[in-house]
Amino acid sequence: MAVQAAIAAPVVHRRRRDYLPYMLALPIVLYEAVFILIPIVQQFFSSFTSDIIGIGTVRWVGFENYERLFADRNFWNSMRVTLSFMGGTVIIAVGAGLIAALLMNQHFRGRSAARAIMTLPWAFPDLPTVIIFYWILNPNFGIINVFVRWFLPLEQNPKWLLDINLALPLIIAIAAWKAFPFYGLVTLSVLQSIPHELYEAAKVDGASRLESFRYVTLPEIIPTLMLMGVLACIFAFRQFALIFLLTGGGPARVTETLVISVYKAAFNSFDFSYGATIGVAGFIAVFVITLLFAFLQRRQEAEAAS
Question: Angle between the 20-32 and 2-18 helix axes, to the nearest 10 degrees?
């Protein structure tokens, strides 16, 4: 009996220990279910209902909201603005992050201080960032007007955030300025993990710096760049505070993204069901973009393996 108990004891202990990973993951799963999955399901359900304050009870309308969505020119404008904002932010932020990472990966005096300064835009909350750029872009006393007048013979200061041709590019530039340190730090960590022997071997083979970057650095960081591209797309799609505080979606809806449209439909017009419909359209767009990035990443990994 003692021998059987001694044999069974480790088995029981092993079975109890096997439950530990699930118990540790349970709080995360519950959090995801309560605060992410349930709201998403509820939003999908709301998009098939009519829920306008003042009308009365919620009623099922089927695809009526989606028919309204496809016929709404403001929605397509918001989709176009969102894609433009996303594309500009991803290219500038990830590209600037890559350049900053390559510079910060070099050995020079004061490198630690330069890295700390580089992270400041990312560390700033949205509200102080908006206040800073309101001062910089102020048409009356903004500092940017001083520099512009050095190069352009302007009679009046531009109304930067009220100009339909300048508002969206400025919003893209501000969002990219705030986001690029994050991508730079992630890229820098990947650069520092590349074995130095690869660069030495490339140097022995007569490779220049550009060729070393192309054949050694780039293949090592492409998976990370693609992942950051996905994250940048998601962050750009859900960007709200900067755009809303700087322009409110104006002027003339040139900076009105899908998130701003959801806010206006739900909290200005109190049409929560139509706001949910716009949100579902944005969710589907982000999901398709994520699948596209995943396909490209798997294809790149297959080519690298072959």
Answer: 20
In a domain, 6, yes or no: yes
Domain count, the chain: 2
56 — pLDDT class (breaks 50, 70, 90) = low
Residue 228 maps to a domain: yes
Are residue 98 and residue 31 in the same domain, yes or no?
A: no
Cβ pair 263, 282 in contact under 8 A: no
Domain with 183, as residue range(s), is 69-305
Which residues does residue 50 pair with via DSSP β-bridges, in sequence order?
A: 59
Q: State the pTM of this model.
A: 0.85
Identify whether residues 27 and 88 lie together within a single domain.
no
Phi, psi of 208 (to 5 degrees): -80, 180
For the stretch 75-130, pLDDT in tens is 999 999 999 999 999 999 999 999 999 999 988 888 889 888 988 999 888 999 99
Instruction: Provide DSSP, 177-239.
Output: HHHHHHHHHHHHHHHHHS-HHHHHHHHHTT--HHHHIIIIIHHHHHHHHHHHHHHHHHHHHT-
